[in-house]
Amino acid sequence: MSRRLCHVDQLTFSFQGLVATLLQLAAVVAGVVGCIQVATTRPDAFPAASKLSKGAWLAILVVSTLVAGAFGVLHLLGLVAAVAVIVYWVDVRPALQRVQGRGRQDGPYGPW
C-alpha cells in the first residue's frame, strides 16, 4: 500500500496538473500583456469608452496577475482573477481600440 502511495506522489505533474499549470501560465501572460497595454494607453481613452479609469484597470490587472500567479486558476481567488483578465481582453480592450481608431469598426457580430 505504501509503495502505491509513493508512486502516486511521483505523478504530481499528471495531465490534470499540466492543464492547471498551462491555464495559470496563460492567465499570468495575458495579465502581464494587459498591464503593458493599459500602461501605454492614453488616459482619456478609458472614460471615452465608458470604462473605469486607467489607474483602476491597471490596478485590477496587476492584482489579478499576482493572484492568478500565486494561487492558480483552479483556486477560487485565482478564478476570479482570471475572469478579471478575461473581461479586460473581451470587453475593455476592444472598446479602447474603437475609441482610438484601431480595431474593427463593423457590427457587434462581425462584418456584414
From TrEMBL:
Pfam families: DUF2516. PROSITE patterns: PROKAR_LIPOPROTEIN. The lineage of its organism: Bacteria, Bacillati, Actinomycetota, Actinomycetes, Micrococcales. The chain crosses the membrane at residues 12-39, 59-90. Keywords: Membrane, Transmembrane, Transmembrane helix. This is DUF2516 family protein. The keyword Transmembrane applies. It comes from Arsenicicoccus cauae.
